[in-house]
Amino acid sequence: MLALRAADVGIPRHDWKAVDEDTFALSSHARAREALDFALSIGAPGFNVYVLGDDRTGRMTATVAYLNAICTPERSRRKDWIYLQNFRDPRQPLTFGLAVGDGARFSEALRRYMSRIRSMLVAALESEAHRERIKAIYRIADEQINEKQAALARAAEEVGFTLEESSEGVRLRPTVAETADRERNRYRLSSALDQLEREAGQLRASAEAQALALDRQTLAGLIEAEVAEFAATFADYPALSEWIDDLTEEMLRDVRHLGRPAPDGDRLPAKYCTNLIVDHARTDECVVLEPNPTYENLFGYIEYRRVDGTSETDLMLIRPGALHRANGAVLVLRAEPLAKDETVWTYLKAALRDRAIRIEEPHRSGGMLLSGTPRPQAIPLDAKIVIVGTPDSYYNFFSNDPDFKTYFKVKADIDPDMPATPENRNILGSLIDRMAARQGILCTPEAVSLLLGLSSRLATRRDALSSRFELIEDLLHESGGHVKAGERLKPEAVLTAWRARYRREARAEERFHLSMQRRHVAIATSGAAVGQVNALTIRELGDSHFGRPSRITARASVGHRGLINIERMAELGGRTQQKGALVVEGYLRGTFARRHPISFDCSITFEQSYGSIEGDSASVSELVAIISALSGLPVRQELAVTGSFNQLGEVQAVGDVIEKAEGFFRVTAKERADGVRHGVVIPLANTGDLVVEDDVAAAVADGTFSIWAVDRVEEAVELFLGVPATDAYDRAANTLKAFDDLIKDRLAPDPWHGRTQTALVEPGDPD
Predict the structure, then answer these.
(1) How far apart are CA 623 and CA 643, in angstroms?
(2) Residue 244 included in any domain
(3) Does residue 670 sit in the same domain as residue 576?
(4) Is residue 448 part of a domain?
(5) Do residues 654 and 547 both lie within one domain?
(6) What is the distance, to the nearest Å, from the Cα of residue 397 to the centroid of all Cα atoms in its chain?
(7) Distance between CA 665 and CA 549 in Å, rounded?
């Protein structure tokens, strides 16, 4: 048994010195750092990363900061991405990946080229010389038509007909009285007139074709003079050269529309424009964070405009998603939204499987198709995907997906705490100091030392630090309110903020203390009582989490059922609690029934407990209560205990020893002020887990509150019963022997009836 000193239990003040390191230099993040470095070094598909860490460990901010530090433009494979019109299949715009900066250069070069060609074409087509050439073409056709029409008119006059112009065209009208052959002449002339109309149409069509050819010849001359310089600029992209050839053919086909002055100024039709969906020339961003990974935010979407009551779109209304912006670099996603939207998760896996980014508009699935809706060509996907989330998301959703390990082969695990080594203290202390500076707070070294000590408390280990440094950042915000202008943050301000936080969250605990004062909850914290022990338990009410004593009682009698766990009988005990009770019974049998069988009944229960009970941390207190009930020795009520033990009597570590010790300290505050000394007993294995408040440590220092650590359950028995464990066990053994003798006497021959009774009790009597 070890009596702990104040220095062994209070909040430590860790030494530190300033260093220039980031969060991922902490040993808690070392495993995740190595995993990220490994994943980024491999170009093979599937080596994407899931970063998992507890809340407030900076798993997102620290991960993004680290990725930004190591993912430089020089190490990335980023490209600019553009969409251009597919002149062979207008519904499927073509995509091109260009070197960073070439996307904007091509977009501007195409705009200048098309604007120049268009303006020169408009000027050329409206020039007097060109108009005269076009007029000459149509004039020749008109002259040929007129000649043919005049010849037909002369032939008609010879047989008594004339040609008249009307709104319906040229008609035959007789000029002489009816003769025997007039109808025959009408028929012959009508046929000739039809032939004339056909020939006139052919002549006009030929003239139109000649005029169009002249327009195209004019445009071709302009293109020939300009296209070489434009195409040569991007000769390193063969696919673009082919597209420029297709562009030339389209311009020649579209010469009349292209050569028409635009009603909206210099705006070009969409098919002659570049949709630059990803332009890295304006930013060095190599890490893209998408906090809300919906389908549209990830894969992009197509916008629509309303025109005359209908929806229409074109390639210029294709919008990119985060996958487009992160292509060739790193995309960071939050796990929780992905886990909630299985549709997006399915599409993301498909993109990783096919290594392609497609814009598919799933929201239109099953709906009415819109005419002219483009189906953009898929863009090759070459990005590292980093999902950041909690262990719960990882184990409850992602790891259960059989495809997950195919596409996310690397796990980057952030430890919830780390050893309080000098390196970790220096790094975390420097981080805390810089966090305070960002908030406009200057810290004294002592304040940072205290904050490091509180980090140890958050880690529930004196020799550890918590990686949940964002909780320390919150405390810095709260502490700043207790610092006067121009002053530095001192430990007193930190402790004031720390205690104010406890005060805000202590309503449920104070209600419990009030219930004890009113004796609604029966807990004795002074004197002694047989078969009654104060066990230290944890009460959780929503976000409230505090330690409190709970009375455990034991009553022993003659019987044969052994240990009776009332919680189990009432179906209030969980499996672990039931196991603890069975371990206690196993220890008792191993201790007292090695020479002869023992027969007894001993009921144990948590008094005034009406809800489910789980855990085996009350095993030590249950044994002390049982030994007290069997030996008749009273238990010290100024003490409380937590701890489990195995069948060999070795006390084992339990959780929440800080809250349990402080809970009993607060419960006994009034009696301690009256001079009663109190204390708690914890497992020896938990000694390093105690990081209690300064007032508890001060009480330990002045002897008004004690904390003992025990390695074997017999040590707890001695402390609570005030006698050596051997004496207590001897008295318990005598009681058990007396119980056994009573049972034997009841099975002895009955002298009054002269016969042996195998049972002297009613069948319903449990004894």
Answers:
(1) 11
(2) yes
(3) yes
(4) yes
(5) yes
(6) 12
(7) 10
Instruction: Kindly tell me the sign of the dihedral angle through the C-alpha atoms of 186, 191, 195, 201.
Output: positive
Give me the average pLDDT of each 10-residue run along the chain (767 residues). Answer: 93 94 92 94 93 89 92 89 94 94 95 92 91 92 87 80 75 70 78 85 91 92 91 93 95 89 75 94 89 94 83 88 95 94 94 94 62 84 95 92 95 94 96 92 95 94 92 92 90 94 89 88 92 92 84 92 87 86 92 83 89 86 95 96 95 94 94 92 95 95 96 96 96 91 71 44 39
Q: Are 70 and 38 in contact (CB under 8 A)?
A: no
Nearest by Cα to 329 from 377, 278, 277:
278
4 within a domain of the structure (yes/no): no
CATH number at 177 reads 1.20.120
Q: What is the token pair recorded at 598?
A: 């023992």
For residues 430 and 401, state if they share a domain: no
Select from 388, 408, 428 the last residue of a domain. Answer: 408
Backbone angles phi and psi of 320, in degrees to 5: -80, 165
CATH of the domain at 617: 3.30.230.10
Strand 161-166 and strand 528-530: pairing?
unpaired
CB 706 within 8 A of CB 679: yes
557 phi, psi to nearest 5 deg:
-160, 175
DSSP strands (E only) in 600-699: 601-606, 634-636, 639-641, 644-645, 651-652, 678-683
The set of residues, in sequence order, having a beta carbon less than 8 Å from that of 285 and lying 6+ positions away, is 325, 329
